[in-house]
UniProtKB/TrEMBL annotation:
This is Synaptotagmin-4. The gene is SYT4. Coiled coil: none annotated. It is found in: Cytoplasmic vesicle membrane; Endomembrane system. Residues 142-263, 276-409 form the C2 domain. It comes from Eudyptula minor (Little blue penguin). GO terms for cellular component: axon; cytoplasmic vesicle membrane; exocytic vesicle; plasma membrane; presynapse.
């Protein structure tokens, strides 16, 4: 009788030990997961409020004051952004009557001169040139001023960009004499990080106050980067109007000690001259027996620089028309960062009529941009009514069916 009792006691102790060990392992895994860096590339903070507050290890806000950080680093500006979430309305906005909750309290009621005086410790010397050099005669030709701040968070290994506001933008809508501005920002030269602000309606002095936090950028690489801000005006019925751009090379900018508040004059978009829109190598074959048209997009070369980095992400969109009505469309894959792309992609189109008299085919070479609408680099149309090499190529495939004929074609403006 004693042996079964001893065995039962040892079994009970073993069961309790196993359950305790399993619970301890689960707790360790849960705690290790909570300490990992968030998997996203950047955090978007709208009006100073983090949209991922629970995933960050630290309870600090990048735009707020912190007493513990002030002991190790130089003190941040006294007028740092403080927000009271309880004072927001149902739409998430702040009432206009309260002076403490302006979208950009440091900039709203300050003249350029006072703005420069109050930020002597955090404003770079180069940024003051754009303000002090303004005169009444030059203001008519100016496209406005962009205000933003830069900082680097060493604990999170994150690069933080706050787009504060823009002032003095030109009116892009001639009827209402206003604009619907928003800003696209790209980190060059790799163009891995592309973000944009929200659209603010009918204003020439938009206050965005949006913060973008980019993780995974070592501080040693900051000097090699360049910030490109594109200021646009939203247009519901056509392509958005480009107001101007701001290009900020980060070489020589020190972010190790403090947040840097900067401003730059908005300049006209740099339209780069090129000998043409590039060339496209197309191979066509008309199968009269099956009444199909085989199209092979082979190569593109000498594409113009459609981005500040000097590189494009081209792809080709193919549209088939019957009697000026589009009946089919295809597109190739995107080729990253190259002016000379090799596609080698084949498409087969069914022709709805006998012969190719009423058929035409359009090739659009576009620059892929995830942050906004894709820009048309060049256009090519092949058909019986096409001029130049497009008409000659079409005539040859009609005269020699079942033969694959390839030709280079110059692209025209999109």
């Amino acid at each position: 009788d004693e042996i079964p009792t001893v065995v039962g006691i040892f079994s009970a102790f073993g069961l309790v030990f196993s359950v305790s060990l399993f619970a301890w392992i689960c707790c360790q895994r849960k705690s290790s997961k909570s300490n990992k860096t968030p998997p996203y590339k950047f955090v978007h903070v709208l009006k100073g409020v983090d949209i991922y507050p629970e995933n960050l290890n630290s309870k600090k806000k990048f735009g707020a004051d912190d007493k513990s950080e002030a002991k190790n680093k130089s003190a941040m500006p006294k007028n740092s952004l403080h927000l009271d979430l309880e004072k927001r309305d149902l739409n998430g906005n702040f009432p206009k009557t309260s002076p403490k909750i302006q979208s950009s309290p440091d900039l709203e009621n300050l003249s350029p001169k006072r703005f420069a005086e109050r930020k002597k410790d955090s404003v770079s010397p180069d940024s003051l040139k754009s303000i002090t050099s303004l005169s009444s005669e030059d203001k008519q030709d100016k496209l406005g001023t962009l205000f933003f701040s830069l900082e680097y968070n060493f604990e999170k290994k994150a690069f933080v960009v706050n787009i504060k506001e823009a002032r003095g933008l030109p009116a892009m809508d001639e009827q209402s004499m206003t604009s619907d501005p928003y800003i696209k920002m790209t980190i060059l030269p790799e163009k891995k990080h592309k973000v944009k602000t929200r659209v603010l309606r009918k204003t020439l002095d938009p206050a965005f106050d949006e913060t973008f936090t980019f993780y995974g950028i070592p501080y040693s690489q900051i000097q090699d980067l360049t910030l490109h801000f594109m200021i646009l005006s939203f247009d519901r019925f056509s392509r958005d109007d480009v107001i101007g751009e701001v290009l900020i090379p980060l070489a020589g900018i020190e972010l190790s000690e403090r947040r840097l508040l900067m401003d730059r004059e908005i300049t006209k978009r740099n339209v780069r001259k090129s000998s043409g829109r590039g060339e496209l190598l197309i191979s066509l074959c008309y199968q009269s027996t099956t009444n199909t048209l085989t199209v092979v997009v082979l190569k593109a070369r000498h594409l113009p620089k459609s981005d500040v980095s000097g590189l494009s992400d081209p792809y080709v969109k193919v549209n088939l028309y019957h009697a000026k009505k589009r009946i089919s469309k295809k597109k190739t894959h995107v080729k990253k960062c190259t002016p000379n792309a090799v596609f080698n992609e084949l498409f087969v189109f069914d022709i709805p009529c006998e012969g190719l008299d009423d058929i035409s085919i359009e090739f659009l070479v576009l620059d892929s941009d995830r942050g906004s609408r894709n820009e048309v680099i060049g256009r090519l149309t092949l058909g019986s009514s096409a001029e130049g090499t497009g008409g000659e190529h079409w005539k040859e495939i009609c005269e020699y069916p079942r033969r694959q004929i390839a030709k280079w074609h110059m692209l025209c403006d999109g």
